[in-house]
Amino acid sequence: MASPRITLYFDIGSPFSQIGFHILRNSPVFSKCQIDYVPVLLRDLFQKCNNTPPIAVKNKLQWIQRERLYWGHRFGVPITDAVPEGFPASTIDIQTALCLIAKELPEKLVSVVEKFYHIFWAEADTKIATPERFFAVFENELGEEATKKIQNTLTTSDMKAILLENTQRAFDSGAFGLPWFECVNTDGDQEGFWGIDHLGRLADFLQLDTSLDQSFRVLL
């Protein structure tokens, strides 16, 4: 029997993507799932959906802050209490670079994403999204040679096209915000789920054992 499959579409600049990423990586509920991580550009996803950015909606930023802290603390996610200075930050460069890593060094993608999320959302350093900062992380995580290759390739239209294709793929599967989880259960049925507060439904669709993680009790 095939394992349940989850594709997480994410953007480093999305706090709820960080929470979703952490839960998939650390909760025993998902230990038997095959999980793929796909970088997208949240800005472009909003544009495709004609979706107003959350901070442009009156009162929504305050709601996002409360929800971010609630779910982050509920699932033990390393997360800053204060909104990081400079949020929201442009993430097109860092997301494009992650597309390149996913293509050339897929075995390194998860560890690099984990590092970036920690710097952006636990250390509250939004400047990690700028090339001069994230290339320094690449050197530590990937080595000098691989980092130079990424630097030389980052500005090509092919890499930006991959980011746009990933974003289109998320949109085509039904996404209108992040995190977006595209799921396939053991029967081959497919369904998409949006947001941390739908993880209970996601687990039910994939027939996962939520009793393995007490943090899920609030979702049931």
Automatic annotation (TrEMBL):
Top enzyme category: transferase
Reactions it catalyzes: RX + glutathione = an S-substituted glutathione + a halide anion + H(+)
UniProt-listed Enzyme Commission number(s): 2.5.1.18
Domain DSBA-like thioredoxin: 6-207
Gene Ontology cellular-component annotations: mitochondrion; peroxisome
rRNA-binding found in the keyword field: no
Entry keywords, A to Z: Transferase
An example molecular function term from Gene Ontology annotations: glutathione peroxidase activity
Family in the record: Belongs to the GST superfamily. Kappa family.
Protein name: Glutathione S-transferase kappa
Taxonomic source organism: Penicillium frequentans
